[in-house]
Amino acid sequence: MVTKTVPTVSLGRSSVSGDKETEITLSATAVDAGKDLKALKICKANSRGDCTGAPIYSCSSESNGRCQGEKLTATVTYDMPYNQSQRFVAFATDKFGLTGRAEFTQQQITEPNTKSTVELSLYDADGLPLADGHTLFGEQDVMVVARIKDADTTQPNWPNSASYTATGLTWPLLGGGSR
Known about the structure:
Helix content: under 10%
Oligomer: single chain
Strand order of the largest sheet: 4-3-6-7
Radius of gyration: 28 Å
Distance between the termini: 67 Å
Number of strands: 11
């Protein structure tokens, strides 16, 4: 007589991987008292807890022979997008088709806001660059070109305004938070 047992599955975040704060390591463990596990997979989950897209980890006894027995473990890295949470689900199946599952939700990771850099260039009326230390005499038209650089990838961290002030006058340089 063979006892059919449903696999027990656990899934969680074990650490932050590497140098990227958005790269997480997920660990799944499946145990079956019947010692007849034959498959384990980890997927991104939709709102119903089903897999969406291709699994981020998958093994089966049919594919490599290593994914069978009483206990299966898997560790996989996943690069999270900033400012989004993500549900994950792990499924373990035994030779009788009995399936155990576990879910884990990674809360959103907020991108740190880095400083923007502003580079100003001055040009004469003919469009020629004015050298550092150049002195203007009399009334002359000049063009000021501002280049604003920001390495941030999420819109809340983009610059949304900048201005240039010279001799008490202020001109807007940027508005609207576009990239």
